[in-house]
């Protein structure tokens, strides 16, 4: 009886699935989904290497400082860095005095001590990076109805984040003729910019790094080509998303070595205890 | 209960004697995971995963309590408090990654533990209660993990919560009011986040309670073993301490190495990048997917794309998703074969390795893939086999299958001979 009941319940689910499968298969075979421009022209991020890659990789602090410079001089006009405080910049190798000077170079929201009214004051190391727009409405109004996303976690918030940021920055180009030929309706709308590394191919951000030397690097640094600046700012954003990366890998090495040692000892103890006991 | 030859607890120190007369807690430990618990000598490494699961639960509770010290369940700041923990709390990044990856490790361990049970028939008499409590633990784990994933209030947290709580809306008549009552609103918001946090803190301790019942129920008949032949004599067993303490002990090392490689070198590989974007109810992610450990059941939910007679497709999906786990409760009565171990069941073994395992693997893959063809069709076939396996194949196989001859005893299976077997009438098991 239980057996018959179970087979009946089984048939209920399997027949329902077969029904869904059959109709789905019919639709798929007779009326396949039309290809889309996104599906055919979207590209995976480019291959790019960073000093922090791999199990033993560490941040290149010189590169992080260059990346910070690119963020400060270019990206920060539109993109916030909400989770990073000026004090964190000490990790990039800046001295206490330099951190204070960098912070003082930013105007942050404050309160006038005499009138109590909101004002702007020079930043302190304990302050966080100020937001470029007062709110999302202001951000939309200034950016063709798109809100520039916060960059603090950007390299963790996209698949293959660091390579994605680098590819996006270096991937602006004219819309390919084949795309327009195949999808005449998919012309990049006015005010948007074609970039095959962006999920839906057209984004509101204009190419931010347009010419070599746009940011002036100090002596002893590589030439600030668009490619170099893109790499540097991507490296900087790896750091903003994961400041503990170096410490994490160092800790991991110590922990894993200790565990290997302990496990070998444990295995030897196990062999010793079970010696002579067939199992 | 235990076997008559189990070592007896004999406190030697006067304090332990005093304690034993008043609160025999050391005796309980001795009889549960000490020298007083005889265990089959032939357990293979799949039997280590129960101990590992208990360890995972403890890791989650400890790291979770620390995370809760720095977390605020408020939609305005929840995301920021987690980032603050990671950036500014000493070793906060490690706690966070240990808790998030610890959940994944817990599910890896528990899936191995459950499928060990499927293969070796661990659910059969006299261990039905162990099995039923185990399924309860699994359901509680899923609820806890789901609510925990909502707490960071990232994009996937919000949209995952919206999809999963939306499932209650599929229930006829009472669905929508029920959904609003559960959420405390029309969509996941502050009220939902608060109650999820409350429950996420509560449920692990409920799990701990059910785990104690699970282990208690296990200790009545004692552990099963790879032959499925019950323990007959002292030569079949070894005391848990030191034998299995040593075996579990070194294997914990292996587990810890895998865990630490995940935690320190690939901490985000099992998470979805969208959860590093703060929740935004106005922007739907391109693909809403739950955490990987829900993928098989998510694939089953999405496999029902057509209304079935008068039952809407969504309701069918919800029924099937819950049914896919609830069917495990009936396993002891669906599989009536008197032989426990799959090793002695040629037909069952084939359906296990070439049916259930591939179907489960496909469901895992499709559950994480986009809801597009051909993944939906593939998942429909896999889900079809999944239900057929438990509800049609098992009852029929257990009726028609001719099992292989079983060894007389565990001792015989290990040593090739058992003195007691010579004395027993031939063919008796």
From TrEMBL, chain B:
One of its GO terms (cellular component) is respiratory chain complex III. Binds 2 heme groups non-covalently. PROSITE patterns: CYTB_CTER, CYTB_NTER. It is a multi-pass membrane protein. Residues 15-227 form the Cytochrome b/b6 N-terminal region profile domain. Residues 230-408 form the Cytochrome b/b6 C-terminal region profile domain. A ubiquinone binds at residue 219. Heme b b562 binds at residues 99, 200. Its main location: membrane. It is found in: Membrane. GO terms for molecular function: metal ion binding; oxidoreductase activity; quinol-cytochrome-c reductase activity. CDD domains: cytochrome_b_C (cd00290), Cytochrome_b_N (cd00284). It comes from the Bacteria. Its cofactor is heme b; heme. GO terms for biological process: respiratory electron transport chain. Heme b b566 binds at residues 113, 214. The main subunits of complex b-c1 are: cytochrome b, cytochrome c1 and the Rieske protein. Belongs to the cytochrome b family. Component of the ubiquinol-cytochrome c reductase complex (complex III or cytochrome b-c1 complex), which is a respiratory chain that generates an electrochemical potential coupled to ATP synthesis. PANTHER family: CYTOCHROME B. This is Cytochrome b.
